[in-house]
Each structure stands twice: as structure tokens, then as C-alpha cells.
């Protein structure tokens, strides 16, 4: 059975991204679970609220322990001379490809937490309203290099990118 | 706090080409000197004013403000036993004041508004309190639209809107010349859109440039569009407002109660039929009226200089033009109701079309009124300069797994309906037996929709276009210029993976920005996408050996 498939993009995220995503998920989990638990204690322990808090806690454990590792394996990227190619998605896998000749902007984003881990995300947008490609969890120096390289390649191609 | 560094395309190396959503558009809404002030001024006509009869136009429109004031004041004064002469005097004074103020303001506006067309740009200086200087390079002009409402038409005037297509509809992105004489408007339109001799010859070779003209038999499709609902509301609203103005409150408490009592005295089925019939009648009338107002005199033609022009309108005449180089494809839209009646309409997929403006009943991308499906196909093909049969007749179906997926979704939805009723039944001891009929009745509907949704799926590839068809409630056939595809998004859920399906989205700068090919076979879809845009996806597609891919 010879089937066609999309090969995986060459590079993975920086391994430190797993820790960053874990910390990010823990913060998110705390923000949701703690108020639920407090409310449960304060309101005379209604069963519905207890169930909600327990469910949120289970979900939070899954999201903090497993999701970052699975996500690390899912997220991949590659830049060739002609195109940007990414793969992402925890459950629904999504591959995106955009030709460099159609790239309009290249953004690097570093939040405070990302800066602590020395990471950055790169967003590549095209003229399409739905065309943004995100490369997540890169080493921040690599991200800066990549953005610079993309900008150079992009400007080398004439045209209006629509 | 997060740092964001953005680098974007700087100066466009090919000045004069259309640009997409650039950060620095071509507009200068400043009061500073035009940076191109130094360019040759050989045949500049100098600054020009809009037509002075704008004062008459605003006088007529000020009556819309005067009329309710006069009515309200007459009633107020009459109630207080003011003699008729006093009422007339007060009204006349108020009317004169309002009309005078409006006209005076408009005259000032007229004096302060000047425009000129130079070799390189169209410029306008305007503004009574805040002066603005709007300047659009001529090679960036994408549309020149002419609108003549009844008042301006009677005076032989029209409004010209010059758009450069970027951020359409945004503040300051358009240059509005209001009003010009009809001839000057048409002359300006030609000057600004015609870009060379070559295309003029091309046109004379083509003969009649009309791609479509109105047939009044198409009015039969009018009640089958959503506009029948909108039309009914508009018509009802207008009547209500008019009657309210002269002091007749149609929906007063008494009237409503009397109608309600009458309805209650009838047998239920008569009442239901009566209400439904009345609603349908009003809706149909509204739809017919709106169709006539929007599409009377409709004519779609291809013009010299590569422009598509739509002319239409009964009372308010409009001329809309769209540059062909902004065109990235067309869409044949068949909403369920219209499709049942054998109708369809054609829309453009073009870059730089904004959201519809408030005063537009019709969407900006509408190229045709609702028309017979076969005609719509022909028009679409003509607009694309392609063969209708090659484009729309040979669409490949999607694999049977796609049909199974739709039936599965239908069954899950029905099942959830039953579960919901069961939960209600346990929570509340008394649940009427007919509640079970709701999910039972939705089952056949869901299955019918699933069948329709699968039949709607289809795709094809011609020399220049990627054809994508989908939808059951709103079926759309989109022919997208392959050169206009600026990226792919391919996604696969765990369930799709088991069935060997993919969802492929083509991204583009035009229209909705993304066009979807749902549940296509893996091989089928990847082959299509790789072929549609040579070189983009093919480096990333590979053949697997016997073990299924683990990605």
C-alpha cells in the first residue's frame, strides 16, 4: 500500500519549551482549580461544584503532565528556500505551508515567562486573513536569526504578496 | 508585558503594483505638503469644485428633518388651542431655520471642498472644521463607483466614490466626490479606470461587452432569498414609521389586542394559516420591491482597461466597477431555498473588498441577481474567461468515508437529542410524550442534510482554477485562481485519520481568506494540492512504504 503523506518538518521546538509549557499550564490550572475549590469550601460543599472542581483538577493534571510532552512531539517546523512549513495540533494535526514570496510580516513574540526560559515564538503572516503560521517554543536567539533570515528572503522576492 | 518585534515588507520594489494588507497604505490624510509635489505639472487641470447644486440636494434632504418637526409641533400647538395662523407661522419659521442652516452648512462645505486629477494622483482637500488632504496615487485606484439617488438623479447629479481597494470602507480610505454632474462623473470614471490603448483595441474586437443583463423573469427567485425576510422588515418598518409620523400608531395596544382576540376566536389552524399567509405575502411583496429597486436595469459588462462593471438600480442608480487584477475567482452561491427553486447567484472573490457599507442592501461582492443556475454558471465562466463545462461539470466526488462521517454526525446529533429528552424526563417527573417526537423528527432531517452535505462535496482542477464545492444549507462552488492561492492548511483529526481523510484549506488574500475542501481522500487531496500550486507543497509530500504513517 503506497500512500501519500506529508512528511514531518525537519526541526522540533527547543527542549526547554516542555518546561515552559508545563509552567504555563500549571499557572492556567491554578487559576481555574483554586477558585473552584475555594468556592466549594465556602458554599457548604454542594455536590455539583465539587464535581466541577474534581473534574477540573483531573483535567489540569492531564494538561500539565502529559500535554506538554505530546505537544512537543507534535510541533515541528521547517524553512526552505521557497517556503515555511509547520506542523501543530494536539488532537487535530495541522500542517501549514506558505511560500516565502507571499509572506508579509514576521513577528517574534517573547512573554515574561518565555524570556525566563530563553524562548520565543515566531509568527509568519501572509496576505490571507487565515494565513498565519506559528513556530512555537524556539530558542530566542534562533528565533531572532530566523526572523532576520525570513525578512531577507521575503524582501528578495518582488511582488505584492497577494 | 511581552516584547513583539515586527519586520514587514518595506518599500515595494515594484511601485504601482497592488499591495495587500500593507502596513503603510498609499493614503496621505495629512495637511502636510504632498511628497510628490515636485512632479511634472504639464497638463494639470488645476483644482475643481463639486457641483454647486449640492445645496439643492441638501435642502431636499433637510425636509426629512423638517417634516417630523412640523408634524409634532402642529399637534403640540393644536392641542393647546393655538390659532391656525400661529401654527403656520411657527412651522414656517422652524422650517426656514432648519433648511437655511443645512443649506448654509452645505455651501460652506462646498466652498471648502476642492479636488483635482493630476497625471499621477487624485487629490481632495475638504473639511469645514478639520481640514483633510486625501491623495490617492492613480495606479492604486481599484474602483470608481457612481451612485445617484432619486434626488440627485432628478438634478442630473451623482456621487463618485474612488477607492484604492485597501482597507475598503475604513475611514479615510475612500475619496468621495459629492455631487458631480452625471457626465462629469462618467468622464472621471473613464479617466481613472482606463489605463491604456491596448485594452481599448481589445474591447472593440470583443463586440458587445455585456456578460449579463437583467431578465424580469428572474424576479421569481426574489422571494427565495433572505432578502424576502429583510424586505418584509424594511417594508413593514417604513409603513409603520410613515403612519407613526402622521399620528397613527398601528401597533397600539388596542389594535394588537383586538387582532389577538379575533385570532383566538378562530379555529387554531385557520389562525396559523392566516398569520403564515400574511407573513408570506408581506415578505414576498417586500422581496419583489427590493429586487426591483436593487436590480432594475442590471447589466454586467467587461470594460476597456480590464474592469468589470455592474450597473443597476431602479430609483437609486449605481455603477460599481471592479478591477480584474483584483479578481481571484468567483463563487456560485446556492442557498437551500434558492437551490430548490433552481436558482443561483454569482459573487466575486476579490482582494480589498470591505464589509458592506450601511447604505448598501446588497453585498459588495454580488455580481448578479439571483438567476437560473445554468445562467449563473455561464456568467461565472465568462467572468473567469474559461469554459463552463470544464470548470463546473467534472468535479470529483469525495470518498465514501466522507459520507459515512456525515451520517455518523447526523446519528450522534439525533442521539444527543434523545439523551437530552431522557435527562429532562428523569429530572422533571412530567415530560410530555410529544417531547420524544422532537428528536424522532429531527432524525430524518439530519439524515437528509447528511446526504445533501455529501452530495455537495466536490473538487476539480482546471488549467487556471481550483474548484471547490461544499455545503448543503448554503452550497457554494468556488473557482479560485490557482495563482491566487498563497498557502495551504491541511488538518486531520483522529477520526479522519482512521478513515483516511484530510481537510485541506487553500488560503488566499481575497474573499473569505480561506476556502475549504472538507474530508477529501488523503492521496486525492495531497495530489490535488501539490498539483494546484506547483512547487509549494510537493517538497513536503512523500510516499510511504507498507507500514501506515505514524505522523
TrEMBL record, chain A:
Transmembrane spans: 21-42, 48-67
YdbS-like PH domain sequence ranges: 72-150
Top-level division of the source organism's lineage: Bacteria
Record keywords, A-Z: Membrane, Transmembrane, Transmembrane helix
Record protein name field: Membrane protein
Organism: Sinosporangium siamense
Automatic annotation (TrEMBL), chain B:
Pfam families recorded: bPH_2 (PF03703)
Transmembrane segments: 55-73, 85-108, 224-243, 268-292, 407-428, 434-454
Lineage: superkingdom: Bacteria
Keywords per UniProt: Membrane, Transmembrane, Transmembrane helix
Region (Disordered) residue spans: 1-49
Keyword Transmembrane helix: yes
Biased composition (Basic and acidic residues): 9-22, 34-49
YdbS-like PH domain ranges (all copies): 110-192, 454-525
The protein, known as: YdbS-like PH domain-containing protein
Source species: Sinosporangium siamense
